[in-house]
Amino acid sequence: MQSSPNASPNLSPEERTSLRYRYQGQAGFDASKTMASSKTTKQADGSKTFAPEKPLTAADKIEKAQKSTNMVDRLNKALDSFVPEQKRRSFWGIAATVLFAFVLVIGSLGSALALVAFTPTNAELIAFAHADFSPEEIKARQIVAAEILHYTIALPFEPVADIEISQEDLDTLRQWSLGEYELCHLTDVRILLGNSLLLSFTITIVSAIIITLTRKTQFARHSLLAAGIVCLAIPIVLGFFLLFFFQPTFVLFHEIFFPQGNWQFSPETLLISTLPERYWQAAGLLWMGLFMINGFILTTLSRFCGKMHTWSVTND
After folding, report:
1. Higher pLDDT, 150 or 75
2. Spatial distance between the Cα atoms of 17 and 196, rounded to a whole number of angstroms
3. Angle 85-116/180-213 helices, nearest 10 degrees?
4. Angle at 62 between CA 60 and CA 64, to 5 degrees
5. Closest by CA position to 108, among listed 21, 229, 213, 273
6. What is the rounded distance in angstroms from the CA atom of residue 186 to the CA atom of residue 188?
7. pTM: predicted TM-score of the whole model, two decimal places
């Protein structure tokens, strides 16, 4: 029969501590909350004794920290044997620059699209596309185009208003109102265009904050320069296809973004007669022109950031 920890008052403090740990769990208390941690030692006869560990001294703590530091140093040296630290930093710097430049290009595309979709701009595009018609018909088509535009550029969180076309305008154009398939396609356009504009607005705001915070660094300069060059190069390629290969480019675009296939309509429908091929050619070229203007703005900002970086390094 085992005796309780308090049955031997003549035990030394070490023996009393060992005895307490031996009875831990049987006496109904957690000794770890009231006593120092212990170390288990196995004796030759197979029995175990318990003794409290000594508290760490300042020298012990320094030794442990030194071991940790040495381990980190060994890991860094092992990593350097495969990829030197300078190359790793260069890689991550290039990756961050490329990623931010891509974000700036996407934001520039969206901002150019928003300017094309601006109601006064769109009205001038309609007038250009229907220059051969009477002023009354041009006015009616501008009204119809404005209704379509307001419907398709609604942001995801905005309430969507129905497309309302007066009978008077329909009579002027000698057209029926939008059919079911046309409305279905315009709904698909609204989802794509609304999400694109929201993404573009978000990217523009975030990019402006990042550029403001990093304007004195090479990161901002290189990112802006790369994005500006891309914004100047893409319109040259796309403009060529829009001028000489408009129909294949138009079909390819719709097959990518509207794979459901509900985007082909007769030329006599209200949607196609209001937004003919000439309209899309003019809108596409205007979009590319605005895109190039964004490229000039980005390259100018890159020079500005470069000067600020040089100024900050010189003053430091």
Report:
1. 150
2. 71
3. 130
4. 70
5. 229
6. 5
7. 0.66
Residue that has been written with the tokens 């208003």 in this structure: 161
Which residues fall within 8 angstroms of residue 247, CB to CB, at 6 or more apart? 277
CB-CB contact of 220 with 211 (8 Å)? yes
pLDDT at residue number 229:
93
pLDDT at position 285 is 86
pLDDT for position 73? 62
Query: In Å, what is the CA distance from 268 to each residue of 177, 271, 273, 274?
Result: 12, 8, 6, 10
What letter does residue 285 receive in the DSSP assignment?
Answer: H
Q: Is 15 helix (H, G, I), strand (E, B) or coil?
A: helix
Asked if pLDDT for residue 91 goes beyond 80, the answer is no
Alpha-carbon gap, residue 142 to 78, rounded angstroms? 68
C-alpha span between 141 and 198 (Å, rounded): 27
DSSP state of 282: H
Q: What is the C-alpha separation between 201 and 119, in angstroms, rounded?
A: 18
What the block records as the tokens of 58 is 């300042």
Question: Distances from the Cα of 27 to the Cαs of 5, 20, 154, 197, 239, in angstroms?
Answer: 9, 9, 72, 70, 87
Tell me the sheet residues that pair with 42: 48
Q: Which of 25, 20, 23 is nearest to 35 (CA)?
A: 20
* Token code pair at residue 276: 């003919």
At 117 the pLDDT is 87
Q: What pLDDT is stored for residue 231 in this prediction?
A: 92
Going from the C-alpha of 164 to that of each of 126, 160, 180, 270, the distances in angstroms are 18, 12, 14, 13
- Among 278, 39, 270, CA closest to 145: 270
Residues 6 or more apart in contact with residue 63 via CB below 8 angstroms: none
Cα separation of 68 and 66, whole Å? 5
Q: What stretches of the chain show up as alpha helix (H) in DSSP?
A: 13-22, 58-82, 85-116, 119-129, 135-152, 167-173, 180-213, 218-244, 246-257, 270-274, 277-315
**What percent of the chain shows pLDDT beyond 90?**
30
